[in-house]
């Protein structure tokens, strides 16, 4: 295994096809590992110096990608982080082909040990099941780095059952009764409807509707969308996700007015609840956010999806809707 380091943004374009082939074969097969995600994230944010580490076999095949950037921090010096960053990317990882993960890790650790490009390696949002949390961290430790591994946050999720009744039985009795009551009230309300955006709709207009609902739902989300970089990322990545069949943008409507929305990703038969929007003041009595979420859970059941993942955060509604905790971890490695 040989490691190449690249800092030219043009490298992204050259890597498109091999990176796209690599991700489904990797231990990090998430939408957040895709070439599309990292490329559009870099175009929107580019917060430091790009540092793409590519691991190739003796015959030149791409076996691993560690897409990073290096930024100067006053307290830690030069910090190397995975592109995507923890603010908008729920899972981050080294991307290594499953049949040669250990060899990829060995090559990367040997390269990092000799590199003078960074002072601290900071890997955030590593999935609890990833061998990066265990095997890669241990290799860094054995190579002489001072390594810490700590739980960072939780990602509640549940395995999608075979039927909606089976889903309801997963909930505790109080939440089951409450959800049934909200669904009955929604069914009785004239003018209430919902839809998932398809290619018959104007996606640009639907994205604008979503961003308006997102900003209306909470002051923190409104502040988040004051950043041109965040808006640019949403507006550039969502059409690409739609083209690839990964986007699930859904709206609850009242007399055709959008009153709640979810931006989900449908990737590898997993539904990922990425963000949401809501008009809580005018339509709160209809519980549009919960009702729409229930529709999307039923859709996931009907389409035989594997998991329904609420992604990072321990908000109460995620557990009320059946989520159980999984964890993401931060790995820090510093030179002794």
CATH topology group of the largest domain? Aminopeptidase
Mean pLDDT: 96
Strand content: 25-35%
Order of helices and strands: EHHEEEHEHEHEEHHEHHHEEEHHEHE
Q: With helices defined by DSSP (H or I, 4 residues minimum), what is the helix count?
A: 13
Explain what you see.
The strands form two sheets. Strands 1, 2, 3, 4, 5, 6, 7 and 14 form an eight-stranded mixed β-sheet that branches. The model has no long low-confidence stretch (mean pLDDT 96). This protein has 336 residues and is of the alpha+beta class. The chain starts with a strand and ends with a strand. It is built from 13 helices and 14 strands. Helix 4 (101-114) crosses helix 5 (131-142). It has two domains: 2-155 and 328-335, 3-Layer(aba) Sandwich (Aminopeptidase), CATH 3.40.630; 157-309, Gcn5-related N-acetyltransferase (GNAT) (Aminopeptidase, 3-Layer(aba) Sandwich).
Give the SSE layout.
Layout: E1 2-6, H1 10-22, H2 35-45, E2 49-56, E3 62-73, E4 77-82, H3 85-88, E5 95-96, H4 101-114, E6 120-127, H5 131-142, E7 145-154, E8 157-159, H6 164-170, H7 173-188, E9 192-196, H8 203-217, H9 219-224, H10 228-244, E10 247-254, E11 257-267, E12 270-278, H11 280-283, H12 288-302, E13 307-309, H13 316-320, E14 327-335
Helix pairs in contact: 2-10, 4-5, 7-12, 8-10
Keywords:
336 residues; Aminopeptidase; 2 domains; alpha+beta; 41% helix; eight-stranded mixed beta sheet; 29% strand
Short description:
By secondary structure, the protein is α+β, with helices and mostly antiparallel strands. The chain contains 13 helices and 14 strands.
């Amino acid at each position: 295994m040989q490691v190449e380091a690249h800092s030219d943004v043009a490298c992204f374009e050259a890597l498109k096809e091999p990176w796209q082939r690599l991700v489904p074969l990797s231990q990090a097969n998430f939408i957040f590992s895709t070439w599309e995600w990292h490329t559009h994230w870099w175009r929107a944010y580019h917060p430091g110096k790009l540092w793409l580490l590519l691991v190739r076999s003796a015959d030149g095949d791409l076996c691993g990608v560690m897409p990073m950037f290096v930024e100067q921090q006053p307290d830690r010096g030069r910090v190397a982080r995975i592109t995507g960053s923890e603010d908008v990317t729920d899972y981050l990882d080294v991307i290594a082909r499953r049949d040669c993960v250990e060899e990829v890790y060995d090559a990367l650790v040997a390269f990092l040990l000799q590199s003078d490009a960074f002072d601290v390696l900071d890997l955030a949002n590593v999935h609890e099941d990833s061998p990066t949390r265990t095997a890669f961290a241990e290799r860094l430790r054995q190579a002489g780095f001072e390594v810490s591994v700590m739980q960072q946050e939780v990602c509640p999720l549940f395995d999608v059952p075979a039927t909606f009744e089976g889903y309801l039985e997963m909930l505790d009795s109080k939440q089951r009764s409450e959800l049934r009551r909200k669904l009955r009230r929604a069914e009785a309300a004239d003018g209430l409807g919902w839809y998932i955006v398809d290619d018959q709709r104007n996606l640009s207009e639907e994205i604008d509707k979503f961003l308006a609902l997102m900003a209306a739902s909470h002051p923190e989300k409104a502040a988040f969308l004051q950043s041109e970089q965040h808006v640019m990322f949403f507006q550039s990545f969502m059409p690409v996700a739609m083209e690839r069949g990964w986007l699930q943008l859904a709206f609850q409507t009242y007399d055709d007015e959008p009153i709640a929305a979810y931006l989900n990703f449908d990737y590898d038969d997993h539904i990922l609840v990425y963000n949401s929007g809501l008009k809580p003041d005018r339509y709160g009595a209809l519980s549009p956010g919960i009702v729409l979420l229930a529709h999307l859970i039923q859709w996931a059941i009907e389409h035989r999806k594997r998991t329904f993942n609420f992604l990072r955060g321990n908000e109460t509604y995620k557990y009320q809707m059946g989520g159980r905790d999984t964890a993401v971890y931060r790995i820090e490695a510093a030179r002794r």
